[in-house]
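Weekly structure sync, notes
Attendees: PL (lead), two postdocs, one rotation student
Agenda item 3: pending single-chain targets
PL asked that the sequence for the first pending target be pasted directly into the notes so everyone works from the same version. It is reproduced below exactly as submitted, 93 residues in total.
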Amino acid sequence: AFLFGFLNNGIMIGSNDGTVFSHTTRITASGGIYSMCWCPFGAPCQSPDNFQVDSGNLTVVGPYLDQQKTCVASQVCEISEYKGQSLSDSDRL
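Predicted structure, written out during the meeting:
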């Protein structure tokens, strides 16, 4: 199924003899691991039913969306149990 956070319904057009696929805008999807499905040139490639070849996984590094945290104004704030895919100590919030 098509997912929120991937423009153009997540469809990427191939270039460089089909070895490069890219979006022209930033992905805003939740961090996580997503299935990649392939649709051959010449097929309609407009609905999920057209993408029948499971071609692997795409890992989106980043936070899981819709987390709810609370801090109190004028107090030191520590946000714990912040969840996501492949987060690191160098990330910033």
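Discussion points:
- The mean pLDDT is 90.
- The first strand starts at residue 13 and ends at 15.
Action: rotation student to compare against the earlier draft before next sync.
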